[in-house]
């Protein structure tokens, strides 16, 4: 791939230390790096050993404080291309010029766990995008769910305190299945809609590449004439949005806690670049009050059937980071990083985030100059009168650092809106100063029921099982009962299932009368493609080489990613064995295909384990030639291909899961 402008800007900061002489950070050549300076061979280390002190001090400070939330993250570079100009709605240059390619940096993350936690836990996923535009950096700081737990940012510390490991024993890690979280949920019922999303399959995505992203908040587009529209942002993965099953997700956490980042990294390295289309929902200001919900409420969606998503461009992630710490860890996202043409609304959660993010970067990244870290620098020039502070990199020349001034001809000068200067939308605001919330925010259950109504039967079953697991982990009986009673307001039958499982009293509420559904919310309605699906081809090292080569090539031609798995490493003909039964596991693949068997009992045992695991997780399984007997007991089940027909197997893999099996 050719370098974009951000790549070129970062080039000056990239250093290859290979074949170089060691120096201190001041450039002094080092003569010895194994022994500290001592007063005698067995004497004390001397303070004057500047090399030791520099080396040790730097090591002591190599770790910056991890993010309170979104600590576990992985990122990649890419570019955004616009399909059609949006100048009717916004004057943001990168959304008006279809000839422009805008560099981007995207960080995916889990929310709850620490930096060392597993990646396939049930959790919200962050989906934060930094656009390096010619008018400055624009950060779309979103999640893989379009709503949030709370309506007002003042409650965010309470939410995080509740969902994090409990302070008296620091357990459980990266999990919401404990007392304090469900105590928070039951007593802060605005969380109902978000909990339905979290308990759904969306909480355990198959990969970052198969995960939707949402801006969550309602923002404003403002065009060159000053006319504003409300807008919500969507990222739609080209491969569709798909998920793991719960048992599979738990096993992957043990087998490969880096599963999601490995998938993203490997995909980019093999040039299977992840792609996401950018969609917007646009609403005229005149229609602000035409719905049965408040469009500024972050716990509500705009149903796509009511406000269609308009696809306007595509983002492609095409380069991995060179250094995770320097880029992924030090990148600073902020909802307040906007460009002319994009503005805020009075969403009270968004308003609080506009303060919180700057405050967070100051403590994490060591002061006010975090914008000078290479990954955070805009590609356009920046000039102002801000000076000094921790980690200042800019060397400002001249005596003037204030505005207004005569000595520098009153520069740097401001820009008018016509010259590209940012101008806030002039919304009319009036009212008393109150610490309260609009009545339009008080419906907490209608859209939670809408979400439930929109799910397929299988998805509903998974949601119920997730509730039973999570609330089943709660020790306090009252919290269990409160949680069950709360979700009776969403769906009475769901609440009864939960109550029966966790030992609570069945609810007596009549449930919700809402029957509306939104088909766009169900992942069963998402696009399904074979591209980049990972298949383990199990092969006996003494099997038919020509047949194996033919199968592998046909799989690759259809877009599948293939790894040959056998009992030992080596080659089968010219085909390399990528993994052994010990070094990998069936949960790490989208499908299993047995190309040839062995008479060895251990080989057969491992084959059976791989096939059974995949079968129980509703994945495609197939076999050919002397291996078809291994599928005999499962013959006739959906997604079981024992004919050796490659097209039939590819179709089975494309379906993602086969829920109608007799397991």
TrEMBL record:
The keyword 4Fe-4S does not apply. Gene3D superfamilies: 1.20.1370.20, 3.40.50.880, Catalase core domain. The lineage of its organism: Bacteria, Bacillati, Bacillota, Bacilli, Bacillales. This is Catalase. Residues 23-411 form the Catalase core domain. One of its GO terms (molecular function) is metal ion binding. One of its GO terms (biological process) is hydrogen peroxide catabolic process. Its EC number is 1.11.1.6. Belongs to the catalase family. HPII subfamily. Decomposes hydrogen peroxide into water and oxygen; serves to protect cells from the toxic effects of hydrogen peroxide. CDD domains: catalase_clade_2, GATase1_catalase. Residues 1-25 are annotated as: Disordered. It comes from Paenisporosarcina antarctica. Heme binds at residues 67, 107, 156, 353, 357, 364.
